[in-house]
Write the structure tokens for this entry.
Amino acid sequence: MTLLGRVPRRLIQLTCFLGAVVLVWPVLPWAIAPRFFQQFSPFVALSSSLAAHSIGVGAILALVVAIISSFKKRWFCLYLCPTGFLLENTSRAGLRKTRWWAKLPPVGRYVALITIAGAVFGYPVLMWMDPLCIFSSPFAMNKATNAMSVILVSLGLGVLVGATFIFGMAWCVRICPLSGFQDMLFAMRKALWTRLSGNPSTQKFLTARRAFFAGAGGALLALGARRLGAARFKRSDTLLRPPGAVPEDRFAGLCIRCNNCVHSCPSKIIRPDTGHEAGLAGFGAPIIRYEKDYKYCLETCNDCTQVCPTGALTPLSLERKNKYIIGVALVDNNVCLTALGKKECDACEHACPYDAVHITWDEDTYNAYPVVNDKCIGCGACEVVCPTTPIRAIRVWTQKPA
Amino acid sequence: MPKDLTRRELMSRSLAAGGLFAAGSLMPVSSTLAQQTPERLPGQTEHKVPASLEGDRVVQPRRDVPVLHKTSVLVVGGGPAGTSAAFSAKRMGVDVTLVERYGYLGGLATGGLVLGIFPLYDRSNKQVIYGIGEEFMKKLDVMKYGIIDRNKAPTYPTIDAEAFKFVLADMVLDSGITTYLDCWGVDAIVDSKGAVRGAVFESKSGRQAILADIVIDCSGDGDIYAAAGAAFEKVTTNIGLISRIGNIDEVDMAPGRGSEDPGKAMVGKPSDGGRPSKGRVNDFNGHAGNSTPAPHVNWLNMRGPVGDALNVADLTELELKHRRGTWSNVEKLREKPGNEQVYLAETAPQLGVRLSRLLDGCKKLTNQEIRNGAKFKDVIGYSGAYANAPEFQIPYGTLVPAKVENVLAAGRCISAEFEVADITRLIPVCWVTGQAAGLAAALCIQDTCKPRNVNVAKLQSLLHQQGAYLG
């Protein structure tokens, strides 16, 4: 390519890169802007629609990208992808000493296949490898309340940039599922054209055996992960998901770790899971933590439910979000200042926005303690004001399925 | 293992601490004892005509009430607000009379065993209540077993009731304040213009009047302003009875009271397995109450059921049931291994009445204002942060009745919305409102003005001089 031919592409790339930053930052006063960014990915759109059995308006964006990509090979990667732009420049500045990865098979399309097969069974296994969500994730850093969250949100992009600096464009060319997916679209379109024009197919795109194994592998992984997720939910007690979360057996699969929800939360209560709570499968998926001196899930906010690009968090109106049960507040009377007669305290009662906690006098035990009624949705307002340390007497726990 | 403390030892220790107080508690306690015999008014008979039964009605004959005393500032109620008001007014050189219904001073802080002194601190753990309350605590500081956890925010100080009774008795004896104990304010004296001119009291000396230029109602229940016809809001809330239990800290209370202190270990052990079961009933789990300056003694708060503090039937029922309930809870506590030696040292002489009447003042302090950190030109002090409410300013207008003249309110019965009064009722905040009311009353005498016309700038500068914190 001539120099002249390359300049406009760089310009387009830069523009798209900046546009992506504007969308995910989000500098726009439009809370749901970040969601549209990830919805450009046809890979995510297909996988999540299959898994969630629903399709959003945002899928139109992905459809446009998919159609263009099927005519112009890797068009999205070359012009639009901000991750690609970043990695291309990193590679240019980097070592680029080896190209051992050039011998690798095109892993990306099998990643895409595994994920789509998994999505059919409700669990898009490797959807989190989508480059757009990897790109947007570090932008949640300003809502991170601890070092681990900072590391987790920036991990994906950090690893990619580091690896690209050392090895060159291995990710983009060989591993990225979005580019692999585009390759498949292109090949399928071509095969269709050839079939229509009556010529026998000359190019072998996917070997049938590999495709079968990828599909079967994806399905098995999906079913296994769902079983594990469901089982864990029955066991684990402290796994709180943001409002609107789909059932636990599918959540970690549908979640692409874009951290839009983390980023959107004004109370900074959403954070990526270290895997401590939901195991390896749940690594990096959002959990809720109520911490002293921070806020709770505000009754005036439903932002996190609006920014999820995959439907892992169902979009909820404010009214419905305020009825969504995140968890349930339970009181440990062995710790509660009021129950132990240590102090005049009714912080939880005063803090509750839903009139769900009342310090109640019990004539039988001749004592008073907080009693939580059915209005509790687990917003954590009581937990963040409970004065006991290090363990708060009133805490939000998961509401186990009956 | 620490030595067991028997009840007898506790009693003798308490008595030793309160010895001076006991000597001075003969009624009336005063360094100015000139007014012991009531003035005889012309036409007044020595013989009292009893109430008579006329059909189904009991009729109290109209009669003159002997005037026990005349004073400039009359403080009704010797609790945290009343004692602060009396001391601060007396320091202005005006004639002050303090009347208290029980046989000791300190009100709920001593007789109610409300030993935890909170809320003292703002959100950043800075102390925002000084003035006369700080003076009280400084006196306790130098006494053995007087006060613990001073200046350890967010842990609040805890005082000893007997030590504080001693401090107040000691201060009153030296102050020149005319004091009457065991003397119950029952009525306001109102002149033809509706202005308050004193109050009527019942005591072993019978029904007597004290005439005054300004009356400060520190009765807690607003008995005097209500009797004078000031408008008020009546509220009901929980009424408990605090007690002190001995030998409890031998279990594992030693690291103790710092359940709010991040540096300290937690007192109670969380339920096994982490997740508490819903609706679990309380059994104290071997941990009850909070440390006091007296070794091995905890004070045990009780929330109690909602009751009407202005209804003698409610009060009687609660006095009896609370003592029965406390005793059985201590028995339950003893059943826990390691708690066998726990004993009930005392139940509070006074019921823990939280709120009853709330004044309709020149200014009603609202919940919204304190949450929004409202600032007032006539600020007379601060309340510390409590529960999820931040520290907030208290305006002078909350102490002045909207209509009736010559009377000020201080303590828990000031003009505030229920949620606010639920904070301003706490001991150190009563010190704050008491001190401001005392100084305002003294200013009324000196400047010959009504409480509502007090020069607020002057009042604030006097509060500053007396060490109060106004922001």
Summary: Chain B touches chain A through 48 residues (CB under 8 Å).
